[in-house]
Amino acid sequence: MVGVGNTGTLLVDDIVSLLERFGCAIPVYALALAYDSEVPLPPFLGLGTVEESRQWVDAEGAQVADYLWNPAEFKLFDIPELSLNSEKYEEIWQQLLLEVGAGAAYVAARDIVIQAAQSLNRQDWSGVLATSDNFVVYAVNIDLSDLSETLPACVDAGKLKTLREQNLLPAL
């Protein structure tokens, strides 16, 4: 049985291991940890590539942020190679439901994903991923309903300021 208390550390370790095995040599600007309102664990992983971001900046103009932060737009989103062990996380989700009930379980699971993103933002990605200078890890509901809350919760203020100055952030 997997304990709920160490889920954040487990999630971080699993994501790093998965990305090491995936071996993405394409430069990326973002790692999205996208969760569903129904079953937020495990999150779906998405890698936003620098190439995609350049294409969106060129093609989308003022609407670029709608694409940059929507993991469903990433070519490398919810693919088998980036899938976490859902059985282990399904067990954790069921434990949360039993311990605190549905509403509180969702908030607790979302907080675990946000904390994992915060920790992953401090990760040294050299040797794991080719990252851009403004690489970020962020948590977001798959429907993007909480992006204005989760992006600032995951990414440090200095990096957010730089992204804002480059007009690469949605209205937060």
Quick structural overview:
Helix content is 49%, strand content 16%.
Task: Show the helix and strand layout.
Blueprint: H1 7-22, E1 28-35, E2 44-49, H2 50-60, H3 64-68, E3 76-77, H4 86-100, H5 102-121, E4 131-141, H6 147-154, H7 157-165
Parallel strand pairs: 1-4
Antiparallel strand pairs: 1-2, 2-3
Structure description:
α1 (7-22) crosses α5 (102-121) and α4 packs across α5 (102-121). The protein is of the alpha+beta class and 172 residues long. Strands 3-2-1-4 form a 4-stranded mixed beta sheet. The longest helix is centred in the middle third of the chain and has 20 residues, at 102-121. It is 49% helix and 16% strand. The mean pLDDT is 89. It has one domain (4-165). A hairpin with an 8-residue loop joins β1 and β2 (44-49). It contains 7 helices and 4 strands.
Keywords:
4 strands; 172 residues; four-stranded mixed sheet; 7 helices; 49% helix
Across the major sheet, the strand order is: 3-2-1-4
Query: What is the average of the pLDDT values?
Result: 89
Cα-to-Cα separation, first versus last residue: 39 Å
How large, in whole angstroms, is the Cα Rg?
Answer: 16 Å
Low-confidence stretches: none
How would you classify the helix and strand content by structural class?
alpha+beta
How many domains is the backbone divided into? 1
Shape: globular
Major beta sheet summary = 4 strands, mixed
Instruction: Indicate the percent of residues in helices.
Output: 40-55%
